[in-house]
Amino acid sequence: MFEKILGRSQLYLAFFGPREPEPGTIFLRQNRVYILPTRPGLAFGLALVVMLIGSINYNLSLGYILTFLLASMGMVAILHTFRNLVHLHITPGRVLPVFAGEVAWFELFVENRARYDRCSVALWHQGKATRCDVASARGTTVSVPVASARRGWLAPGRITMDTRFPIGLLRAWSYIQPDMRGLVYPRPDDGLLPLPEPSGGSGEKRVASSGSDDFAGLRAYQASDSPRHIHWKAAARGQGLQTKVFSGRAAAELWLDWNELPANLDLESRLSRLTRWVLSADHDGLRYGLRLPGLELAPDAGEPHRLACLRELALYGL
Question: Do 37 and 171 share a structural domain?
């Protein structure tokens, strides 16, 4: 009895248990595509049995013709349903970062290298379906939504691809688990506390690249910089693109410090507070730095610096 239960559990894990992600392009071979009748398909088969029994009982020639005609149509539907899914190629795409609690969109490129169209293909994940049609010798990009619950790396897990084309009597499906992941930032808290005071003599926050009072120097060009602040003379001399940095009245530096947070906050609350500070400082165009236990990012501004800070907050302690 114990051996039977153990055998059944191993069989269950073999089909439904967790599997390793599949790297690269996933190819749906024939041996990984399954097909079974749907509820309408079972009703259709039962109706054929009843029609056949009635034709035999009453010796109805037209009944035989109709029964076998419908049965042949069902057999052809099996072929079309199966080949609508088999031999597809699925390639992982990009995943944009999101904040905890938001929906991450995993892009998959579904490619059809056959000479016939693939219609009504659905990708199921977390009970939601994303449907697509793929023309012959073409491909299409499908975005699969995945809910994020906590910060860190998010993997989509197992995705079910299925189709009921052409008449819905049968369902063909296959399981895929692409090797891809997206980054989930900590969710910013909704507190109304202001940013911490900057360090410096005057106690005023320093604005980078937006003020025009004093010329502060040059730094490497970033994609978010305004063309008005590019040092074109240096570019003409072959020194590469550099951006002029202007500072306001003060030269204070804003530090977002882990140690300045209230002592009663737990780990996730601290990361949420720092995330909100990073977003607020970036929105105001401030130069800011980030201090975490064992990590320090020097003060800077712009989108690359914001993304670097959010990445460190998302992966801290993981």
Answer: yes
